[in-house]
Specification:
Elements (H helix, E strand, L loop, with lengths): L4 H8 L3 H8 L7 H14 L5 H8 L4 E6 L5 H16 L3 E6 L4 H10 L7 E3 L6 H7 L6 E4 L9 E5 L1 H14 L5 E5 L5 H17 L6 E4 L4 H13 L6 E4 L2 H13 L9 E3 L16 E3 L2 H22 L14 E3 L2 E3 L9
Parallel strand pairs: 1-2, 1-3, 3-4, 4-5, 5-11, 6-7, 6-8, 8-9
Antiparallel strand pairs: 10-12
Helix pairs in contact: 1-2, 1-3, 5-12, 6-7, 8-9, 10-11
């Protein structure tokens, strides 16, 4: 016979119940114990019997991750955070992209039924009604950067409004008066909150100055298009604040390609602090979002919900177990050369 759970417990000098809790992702195990048990499993080359575990616990040891895209540094960082947190708990992730509208989202959600113990969802096309119609009633769900949770689902978000407000305050403090904003998709919650923060800070710091908003879609290409359009204008804004770094970098490269100097002719700022933001020239002023940490915390919250349901049994689950107040993480202003010095 191969190595059993009892062998792992004996070698780790813990109870079989403790090993079982590590395998099932229960939050009652300390990080130190979990790390020790996982190290012993690796040393003994122990492989859990997924079929037996599914029969005994009704769990698959797999969580679903639904993202609006799988391309780009933001999403790779998000997946890195989720995957690292999952591996530390002996879990697998099943990742899917939601590129279309509500119909595609419903199809992807339906494909996850019976295959995952819970879902992490980030999508502008998914709201509480769609989740309720597409998923089993008791399946744990955590929403990422979404305003759709309400009282129905757990959610973890960045304080996009305050961070965007702080960026405009910084740009105004640098002496910039005509501050333009390159927004994201109209239906995207993050884009809406960042636009709201831009407008609030503009009214507060520069009363009487008209807003200047350009439509983007979070892609580098949309930033490039706006950068080229601004370069052709006789009267340009003093600064361009883009709702994410990919658009900011696209705009900055296009402006430089047209012979303009950053920040002397026009300042540029972004949002997210993706790794490449510090390597463009000049380095990009941005808002640092703890992307990997956001994914890891969402995974942690999801495993707590899964453990609560597994411990009580589906019949004993109450509505409150899958309804929590939204958790909001702060973002940090990162000042680099692209925004210009304080005048």
């Amino acid at each position: 016979m191969g190595v059993t759970i009892k062998d792992v417990a004996q070698a780790a000098n813990v109870s079989v119940a403790s090993v079982s809790r590590v395998l099932n992702g229960h939050g009652t195990v300390t990080d130190r114990t979990r790390a020790h048990v996982l190290a012993i499993m690796k040393q003994l080359r122990y492989t859990p019997h997924i079929g037996a575990r599914s029969l005994s616990t009704s769990l698959t040891s797999t969580v679903g991750v639904l993202l609006p895209d799988l391309y780009g540094e933001f999403f790779s960082e998000m997946i890195r955070g989720i995957d690292g947190a999952a591996r530390r708990r002996g879990l697998h992730i099943l990742v899917a992209g939601l590129h279309g509208g509500a119909d595609e989202a419903a199809a992807v959600l339906g494909s996850m039924r019976g295959r995952v113990d819970g879902l992490l969802v980030m999508s502008p096309h998914v709201d509480a009604d769609l989740l309720a119609d597409s998923l089993p009633e008791r399946l744990p769900v955590v929403l990422l950067n979404s305003g759709a949770g309400g009282a129905a689902y757990s959610s973890i978000s960045i304080d996009n409004y305050s961070a965007a407000r702080a960026m405009v305050q910084h740009l105004a403090g640098c002496g910039h008066r005509r501050i333009a904003f390159l927004t994201g998709p109209a239906q995207n919650f993050e884009a809406q909150e960042r636009l709201r923060g831009y407008r609030a800070a503009l009214a507060e710091c520069l009363p009487g100055v008209r807003e200047s908003v350009f439509q983007g879609d979070f892609s580098e290409q949309s930033g490039t298009a706006v950068g080229k359009a601004l370069a052709r204008k006789k009267q340009r804004p003093d600064a361009l604040f883009a709702a994410n770094d990919m658009m900011a970098i696209g705009a900055q490269i296009a402006l430089q390609g047209a012979g303009l100097r950053i920040p002397e002719d026009i300042a540029v700022a972004g949002f997210d602090d993706i790794p490449v933001a510090r390597y463009v020239s000049p380095a990009l002023t941005t808002v640092r979002v703890p992307i990997a940490a956001l994914g890891a915390q969402a995974l942690q919250r999801l495993t707590e919900l899964v453990a609560a349901q597994a411990g009580k049994g589906s019949d004993a689950m109450t509505d409150s177990d899958n309804r929590v107040a939204a958790h909001t993480l702060d973002a940090e202003l990162v000042v680099r050369a692209s925004s210009g010095s304080i005048r």
